[in-house]
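Thread title: Can someone regenerate the structure for this chain?

I was given the following input by a collaborator and told the matching structure tokens would be attached. They weren't. Posting the sequence so someone can regenerate them.
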Amino acid sequence: MTDRVSSGGRAAIACMLGGPDGRTLFTLSNESTSIGQAVAATGGFIETLQVEVPGAGRP
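Best answer:
Regenerated them for you:
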């Protein structure tokens, strides 16, 4: 880990590096990590951020 990114108080549930050059950080965030609350919530987000260090290989 080289840096930290704020999710604005939401829980970052799934994070993955991808994109054509492996330098796009994709995050899925929600107000809760509880499955029941997350399913009922309507405030989920998929966000992207360009990073300096690319991903290596496949997950």
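The chain has a mean pLDDT of 82.
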